[in-house]
Design a protein that fits this description.
Pfam families: Laminin_G_2. With 1229 residues, the protein is mainly β. Helix content is 9%, strand content 41%. The chain starts with 13 loop residues before the first helix and ends in an 8-residue tail after the last helix.
Length: 1229
C-alpha cells in the first residue's frame, strides 16, 4: 500500500525524510497533466504470458536431460470454465508413448495420463479443486499447480494442498518427450482430452519445468526467443480479467455479455468483491441500478484490509515460522503509516450520498437533501432503472444521475488529491469482519454500520473503462444464495401468509419478513425464536472494539417481557475511556427512558406506553446523526437530539448484568463499604435482539453448534460463517434458555458457600408481622436456612433436618421445634417454593407453605409475657458471633446452609394479614447490612455443580488463569490476562526476544490520544538478566504528568517487579519483593489499574493492592506512547527519530534481555502489532533490534491449572454491566 502522510502519528528521522520525499513526489504528480494515474514501482513487475484461446507454447526437452523424474510448476488465472492448460508426450520403460494432460473441465482441474498402446495398461485420471470462494478454478484469480514425478508416484499440489497418487505400473518412470503449454497446435488431435475442450484462455504468471537439477523458465525463454521453443499468439503484458474482456482474447458475444451483465441481490447478507481503485488521482465508475431500498450500501472501498484476514495471515505466518524454527522480523514502523482513505456510495432515504477521504478528512457529498418532504428527480428507490456515473478529479467528485450532473462542493481545497485504496471494491454489502475491524469502518457510512445491504439489480459496471464481470463474482461463496445472474423483475410481493405471524415487506426478488413483533424467527417467521431468561444476575455483553469506536448511526430492536417498573435495560458505552458517552435504556415508572450522551451532556426522552405488565413488547430505536426515531409496539415518535456533537464513542454493549463483582463474590462486605445501587438489572425474558441489523439471538443459538461440531464450517454458509467468526470471541451470554414464557423466573438467585455463607438484613422492630418468601435448592441434609433474631436473644430459624424443613424457636419461655413432614424431602436439587409468616402480638403465630402445601407449627398460639421485637434476619445460617442473652447457647455449633435461594421477598406490617405480596422483583443485595461468602447466581445442577464439560464454564477449563466466558450452551476462554493464547490459554503467545548484543526497544503511539479510567496489562517474562531494566513504560502527552511504569529492580539479591504510576495524585509505588524474576523460569505478570487503585500479581501468588490516599487524580489523561523493553530517557532524539544509543550513565544503558510473551494492554496484543496486525488508533512508531520467536518454549515451574484471576480486568471486556448496575460498590467503578 503506498505511503502517504495524512492524520497519522508523528514521523521522525528517516520516516520524516521519507515523508518529505513522498510529499514532493505527490506534489509533482498533482501538478502534472490530468490523466488516470496508478501507483509507481521502483522495479517493474515482470509481464504475464497471456493466452487467447488459440495460443500455444511447445518445448522439446534436450534428450540428454531426460530423466525418469520431472516436475512442472504453473501459476494461472482464467475466467473460462474449460481449457487445456498443459499437454505433454511422455514415455516409460513399458510404453513408447503416452499423453499427460492438465485441463479445466467445468471449473475443476483434471490430470490424466492415457496411452493407446495396450488397453490393459489402463489410464490415470484425477480431479482436483482450487481454493476458491467461487468453488471453481475459473474465478479470475491466481491459482498454483505443481506436479512432480517420483518413479511410481505423482505428487500434485493445487493451491498449497498436496496429494500423492500411485501410478499404474505401466506409467512408472515417466520421462518427458515434449511439453505444450496452453493446448495444442491448430489441427492437432488432443488425445486423452474431451474433444469439446479448447485451448486455454487466460494468463500464466510463471511456468517452470524441472528435470533433475535443471530448471526451465518458459517466460524467460519466450522473452529471449531462445532455441528449443515454439510459440503462437502469446502476448506478454500484465494480466487482468478486464484485459481478457476488452482485448481480442474472447469472442465479441462474451465481451458484450460481460460489459452489459446485471445481477440481482435477492436478500441482504451477500456482496460482490471486485478489483477497484488503488492509487489514483482521476478515475471513473459507472453502473446502472434498480431498487426499492431507500437506505443501503452500494459501493465501498478503503485503505484498510479486513481484520480477520490479517489475523489468519499472522497465525499462518507464526505457525510456519515456528515449524521451521525461524525468527520473524518486526515490521518496519513506516510500513504501517498508511492512509485511511475512503470512497463509498450509499442510498439515504433514496438519494445518493458519497463519502470521500483522500487524507484531508472525510467529505460528505449528498446529491439531494435526504429529509426533504417531496421526491426530487434524484430519487432512485422507485424500482426504475437509473444510470450513475462518478468521476474522481484531483480530490473532487462529480456525479451524473440519469444525465443530471452534480458537483461536490468543498469548503477548502483538499491537501491530498491522490486516493490511496487497497484495491478491493465491495458492491452491495460488506463482510462482517470488516464491520468489526476496530475503528476501520468510518462512522459516517451509515448503511455499513446499520447493515443495510443492497437489494435489487446492479449492472453495466465499468471501472476506468474496464467492465466488471459480475456474473463471475456472483459465484463466490459470500455472494452465492444472495446474488443471482441477470436482473429479475420485481417479484417480492407479499401474500397473506407469507410471513405470518410476522410482517411482510415487499422486497425485490422475494418478500422480506420482519419477525421482531413476534416470538418467531427464520426467513419467513416460521421458526420458534430463542427465548432467554434474565434473573437479575445474568446478561448479554458484546465487545465491539479494542479501542473505543465511533458511530453516527445506531439501530436497536428488543422484544422483551418484564414486571419491573425500575431497572437498567440496555447500555452501550466504553469500559475503559473516561468519556461520558452513552446510549442507554432504563425502565422508570413502568416506561422506557432513553439516554444519549455524546461527550457533553445527557439527553433523555421517556416513551408513553406502559411496558411493566408482564406482556411482550417490542422496542425499536433508530438514530442517524441527530434524528432519533423511537417506536414501542405501535406508538412511534421522532425526535431531534439537541446536541452539537453526533459521534458516540463505545466499545461494548450489554443487556442485564453478569453479577461478577469480586467484592460481592470473594470478600466480606459491610454496610459501611457499600451503597445501594441506583437500579437493578433487567429481570424478564428476551426473544428478539437486533443491534445495528445483527440478529444477536440467532447468533447465540448458532454458536454452540459452531464450536462443538468438527465440521461446522461445512454446515454453515459463508455469510453466516463470516458473522460467527467475527463475533465468536466477542460475545458473552450468561442468560438462560427458556423453555416457555409461563414458568416462574427465579429472580436474583444467590448461592451460599459450603464453608459458611451469611446475608444479614435489618428489620423494623415496630412491625409485629413479618412475611418471608423465597425459592430454595439444595442437596444438603442439614443446615440453617434463615434465622429471625431479636435483641433479647429470642430467635426463630428454619433449618434442614435429614433433608426436611423444620422450624425451631425460642421466644420468652416458649421453646419448640416442628418438622414439615407433609412437604417431604427438599434436598433433591430441585427448586422449592416457600412462604414463611410470623406475627408477634399477645400470642405467637407461625405459618409455613411449601410448594403450596400449608404447614402450621403446633402449640404456637401461646401467650407471650413480654414483647419480642425481631431486629435481624440472617439468611444462610445462625449468627456468626455469640448473641447476648442467648439461653443455653442454642444457636451455637449449628451448620450453615449450603445451597441457593431465589426470588427473596421480605415484607412487614403492623397487623396480621396486612403484609403485601411484592410482585416486582427485588434484588436482595440492595438491602443487606452485611454478607459473607455469598455468590450471585446459582450453579447447583442435578447432583453436581455444573459438570457439563461441553457446555458450561467450570474451574480450570482455561489454563494459566484464563477467564472462561459463558455463551449460553457453550463457552470460550479469554486469555488476555493469562500471558498465553489458544483455545484454552495453553499455547505460547507471540514472543518478543530481546538479545544481549543489541539494545532492543519498541515504541507504539496512540493517535488520537486516549484518556482511560482503567488499564489492564498482562505478559509473560523469562530472563536471567539481573540488571534493573524497564519492561513497559506508558507515557502521556507533554502537558500531562500521568504515566505508568513496570520495571525490574534489585532487592536483596533478587530481581523483583516494581509498579510506579501517577494519575495526578502523586507518584505511587507497588512492589512485589517475593518473586525473583531473573531465575530463568517463566513468570506471568498481571497489573490492573482502576482509577487511583492498582493491583499486581505474579503467577498465582497473592494479589498486592495499593490505593492512593489522595483521590484528586483518578484517570490516565492523554495516553500517548508505549515503550517496550526500554526507558524513554535512554532514547536519543535525532531529527525527530527515537534511536537507542549509549550514554555516559551506565544505568541508562540497561536494556531488557530475555523474552516477553503475550503482552496485552486492555485486550490488545502488542506483540501482534509488532509483526503486522493493525489496530487503528495505535501505531508502531519505532522498533529496534527485536525479533519474534514462534518456537519459544517457556520454562514452566507452575501448573496450567490455575484458578481464574484477572483481578477485575474481566470488567474491561466481559463484565461491562457492572459499570452501571453496581457502580457505587467499592472497587466496582
Amino acid at each position: 500500500m503506498p505511503l502517504r502522510p495524512s492524520q497519522r502519528p508523528d514521523r521522525t528521522g528517516a520516516v520524516l525524510l521519507m515523508t518529505l520525499l513522498l510529499d514532493a513526489l505527490f506534489a509533482l504528480k498533482n501538478t502534472s497533466c490530468h490523466v488516470s494515474t496508478v501507483g509507481t514501482h521502483s522495479e517493474p513487475s515482470p509481464p504475464d504470458m497471456v493466452f487467447s484461446g488459440s495460443s500455444w507454447l511447445k518445448y522439446h526437452p534436450n534428450p540428454g536431460l531426460r530423466v525418469d523424474t520431472f516436475a512442472f510448476m504453473l501459476r494461472f488465472k482464467t475466467a473460462v470454465m474449460d481449457g487445456v492448460i498443459l499437454s505433454a508426450e511422455v514415455d516409460s520403460a513399458k510404453l513408447d508413448s503416452a499423453k499427460l494432460s492438465v485441463y479445466l473441465y467445468k471449473g475443476s482441474l483434471i490430470l490424466s495420463i492415457w496411452s493407446s498402446e495396450k488397453s490393459s495398461y489402463g489410464t490415470f485420471k484425477q480431479q482436483f479443486s482450487c481454493q476458491s470462494a467461487s468453488e471453481t478454478c475459473a474465478d479470475g484469480r491466481w491459482h498454483d499447480i505443481n506436479v512432480s514425478s517420483a518413479f511410481s508416484l505423482l505428487q500434485i499440489d493445487v493451491d498449497q494442498r498436496s496429494a500423492s497418487e500411485p501410478l499404474p505400473k505401466a506409467f512408472h518412470g515417466l520421462r518427458m518427450k515434449m511439453l505444450i503449454l496452453g493446448g495444442q497446435q491448430q489441427g492437432a488431435l488432443a488425445l486423452g482430452i474431451p474433444q469439446n475442450i479448447s485451448n486455454f484462455t487466460g494468463c500464466f504468471q510463471h511456468a517452470f519445468y524441472h528435470t533433475g537439477p535443471n530448471q526451465i523458465d518458459f517466460l524467460h525463454l519466450l522473452k529471449e526467443h531462445l532455441d528449443g521453443l515454439q510459440a503462437f499468439n502469446i502476448s506478454l503484458h500484465r494480466c487482468s480479467l478486464s484485459g481478457l474482456v476488452n482485448g481480442s482474447l474472447m469472442s465479441k458475444t462474451r465481451r458484450y455479455t460481460i460489459a452489459n451483465s446485471m445481477v440481482t441481490f435477492t436478500r441482504p447478507g451477500g456482496y460482490l468483491l471486485l478489483r477497484g481503485w488503488k492509487t489514483i488521482s482521476r478515475g471513473r465508475i459507472a453502473f446502472r441500478l434498480r431498487t426499492f431500498q431507500k437506505n443501503c450500501l452500494l459501493l465501498y472501498s478503503s485503505s484498510s484490509w479486513p481484520l480477520q484476514s490479517r489475523i489468519r495471515d499472522l497465525a499462518e505466518m507464526k505457525r510456519k515460522a515456528g515449524a521451521s524454527g525461524r525468527l520473524l522480523e518486526v515490521v518496519n514502523a513506516s510500513d504501517l503509516l498508511t492512509g485511511t482513505d475512503l470512497f463509498s456510495l450509499e442510498l439515504r432515504e433514496g438519494y445518493l450520498v458519497l463519502l470521500l477521504n483522500t487524507g484531508s478528512g472525510i467529505n460528505e457529498f449528498q446529491t439531494e437533501s435526504i429529509w426533504r418532504q417531496t421526491k426530487s428527480p434524484w430519487f432512485s428507490a422507485d424500482g426504475k432503472e437509473h444510470s450513475v456515473e462518478i468521476r474522481l478529479i484531483d480530490g473532487y467528485l462529480q456525479v451524473k444521475f440519469d444525465g443530471m450532473e452534480n458537483h461536490m462542493n468543498l469548503t477548502k481545497t483538499p491537501r491530498y488529491t491522490f486516493l490511496n485504496l487497497n484495491g478491493d471494491l465491495y458492491v452491495g454489502g460488506l463482510p462482517e469482519e470488516l464491520r468489526l475491524s476496530n475503528n476501520e469502518l468510518p462512522p459516517q457510512v451509515w448503511s455499513a454500520h446499520l447493515r443495510k445491504d443492497f437489494i435489487g439489480c446492479i449492472g453495466h459496471l465499468v471501472i476506468d473503462e474496464e467492465p466488471a464481470d459480475l456474473h463471475l463474482e456472483a459465484m463466490a461463496t459470500w455472494a452465492r444464495d444472495h446474488v443471482e445472474h441477470g436482473c429479475r423483475s420485481p417479484s417480492g410481493a407479499c401474500e397473506a401468509d407469507t410471513c405470518a405471524p410476522g410482517v411482510c415487506d415487499e422486497g425485490w426478488a422475494e418478500p422480506l419478513c420482519e419477525c421482531a413483533d413476534t416470538n418467531r424467527d427464520g426467513p419467513h417467521c416460521k421458526q420458534e425464536a430463542q427465548i432467554l431468561t434474565f434473573n437479575g444476575f445474568q446478561g448479554i455483553e458484546m465487545h465491539l472494539s479494542k479501542l473505543p469506536d465511533q458511530s453516527e448511526a445506531e439501530s436497536l430492536v428488543l422484544r422483551f417481557q418484564t414486571l419491573q417498573k425500575h431497572c437498567s435495560l440496555f447500555e452501550s458505552a466504553s469500559a475503559i475511556s473516561t468519556a461520558p458517552d452513552k446510549f442507554g435504556l432504563e425502565i422508570k415508572d413502568g416506561r422506557v427512558m432513553l439516554f444519549y450522551n455524546f461527550g457533553h451532556k445527557t439527553w433523555n426522552v421517556s416513551t408513553k406506553p406502559q411496558i411493566s405488565d408482564g406482556s411482550w413488547h417490542t422496542l425499536r430505536v433508530l438514530r442517524r446523526s441527530r434524528r432519533l426515531e423511537v417506536k414501542v409496539d405501535d406508538t412511534s415518535l421522532v425526535y431531534n437530539i439537541s446536541d452539537e456533537a453526533t459521534m458516540l464513542d463505545s466499545d461494548y454493549i450489554c443487556i442485564g448484568n453478569l453479577g461478577k463483582s469480586p467484592d460481592i463474590l470473594y470478600k466480606d462486605s459491610h454496610a459501611s463499604y457499600l451503597k445501594v445501587p441506583e437500579s437493578d438489572a433487567f429481570v424478564g425474558r428476551l426473544s428478539q435482539f437486533y443491534i445495528n441489523g445483527l440478529n444477536v439471538m440467532s447468533l447465540v443459538r448458532t454458536l454452540p453448534e459452531f464450536r462443538n461440531s468438527h465440521d461446522h464450517l461445512r454446515k454453515i454458509k459463508e455469510p453466516e460463517a463470516s458473522i460467527i467468526n467475527a463475533w465468536k470471541d466477542n460475545i458473552g451470554v450468561s442468560a438462560s434458555a427458556a423453555e416457555n414464557d409461563a414458568d416462574d423466573i427465579l429472580e436474583f438467585p444467590i448461592q451460599f458457600g459450603d464453608n459458611g455463607g451469611l446475608l444479614e438484613y435489618v428489620l423494623d422492630p415496630q412491625k409485629r408481622c413479618t412475611t418471608l418468601a423465597f425459592f430454595m435448592k439444595t442437596r444438603s441434609t442439614t443446615g440453617v436456612i434463615f434465622t429471625l433474631l431479636a435483641s433479647s436473644g429470642d430467635f426463630i430459624h428454619l433449618e434442614l433436618v435429614s433433608g426436611m424443613l423444620s422450624i425451631r424457636y425460642n421466644i420468652d419461655i416458649i421453646r419448640g421445634q416442628s418438622t414439615a413432614r407433609n412437604a417431604g424431602y427438599v434436598n433433591n436439587t430441585s427448586w422449592h417454593k416457600l412462604k414463611f409468616g410470623i406475627c408477634m402480638a399477645q400470642t405467637l403465630l407461625l405459618t409455613m407453605t411449601v410448594n403450596e402445601i400449608k404447614h402450621e407449627a403446633p402449640s404456637t398460639n401461646i401467650s407471650i409475657n413480654r414483647p419480642v421485637l425481631f431486629t435481624r434476619l440472617l439468611l444462610g445460617g445462625p449468627p456468626d458471633k455469640p448473641v447476648a442473652y442467648q439461653p443455653q447457647n442454642q444457636l451455637e455449633n449449628q451448620q450453615n446452609y449450603y445451597g441457593c435461594l431465589a426470588t427473596i421477598s421480605v415484607s412487614q406490617s403492623s397487623n396480621e394479614g396486612e403484609a403485601d405480596n411484592v410482585s416486582e422483583p427485588i434484588n436482595p443485595l440492595r438491602f443487606f447490612k452485611s454478607l459473607h461468602n455469598v455468590d450471585a447466581g446459582c450453579h447447583l445442577r442435578g447432583d453436581v455443580w455444573e459438570e457439563d464439560t461441553a457446555a458450561t464454564c467450570r474451574p480450570g477449563v482455561c489454563g494459566f488463569g484464563g477467564r472462561c466466558v459463558q455463551q449460553l450452551k457453550t463457552y470460550f476462554c479469554d486469555c488476555s490476562m493469562s500471558g498465553f493464547t489458544g483455545p484454552v490459554c495453553t499455547d505460547v503467545a507471540t514472543t518478543v526476544t530481546f538479545s544481549e548484543s543489541e539494545r532492543g526497544c519498541a515504541v507504539l503511539e496512540f493517535n488520537p490520544l486516549r484518556n482511560t479510567t482503567k488499564d489492564a496489562i498482562a505478559f509473560g517474562i523469562q530472563t536471567k538478566h539481573r540488571e534493573p531494566v524497564v519492561l513497559l513504560h506508558i507515557t502521556s502527552h507533554s502537558n500531562s504528568l500521568d504515566f505508568l511504569r513496570i520495571e525490574m529492580t534489585n532487592f536483596r539479591k533478587r530481581s523483583v517487579l516494581r509498579l510506579t504510576y501517577n494519575m495526578g495524585s502523586g507518584i505511587q509505588v507497588l512492589q512485589d519483593s517475593s518473586t525473583d524474576l531473573a531465575d530463568g523460569n517463566f513468570h506471568v505478570i498481571r497489573v490492573v489499574r482502576s482509577m487511583s487503585t492498582a493491583k499486581l500479581q505474579i503467577d498465582s501468588e497473592d494479589v498486592l493492592e495499593h490505593h492512593s490516599p489522595n483521590a484528586n487524580g483518578t484517570d490516565f489523561n492523554k495516553v500517548q506512547q508505549i515503550y517496550i523493553g526500554c526507558d524513554p530517557t535512554t532514547l536519543n532524539v535525532r531529527k525527530g527519530a527515537a534511536i537507542p544509543s549509549l550514554s555516559r550513565d551506565s544505568a541508562a544503558n540497561r536494556f531488557f534481555v530475555g523474552h516477553l510473551t503475550g503482552l496485552t494492554l486492555n485486550g490488545i496484543s502488542l506483540g501482534d502489532i509488532l509483526i503486522g496486525e493493525s489496530v487503528p488508533g495505535l501505531y508502531l512508531k519505532m522498533s529496534h533490534a527485536l525479533v519474534i520467536d514462534p518456537s519459544f518454549t517457556p520454562n514452566l515451574r507452575q501448573s496450567s491449572h490455575l484458578p481464574a484471576n484477572d483481578m477485575e480486568a474481566v470488567q474491561v471486556r466481559y463484565n461491562f454491566c457492572c459499570r452501571v448496575h453496581k457502580k457505587n460498590l467499592k472497587n466496582c467503578q
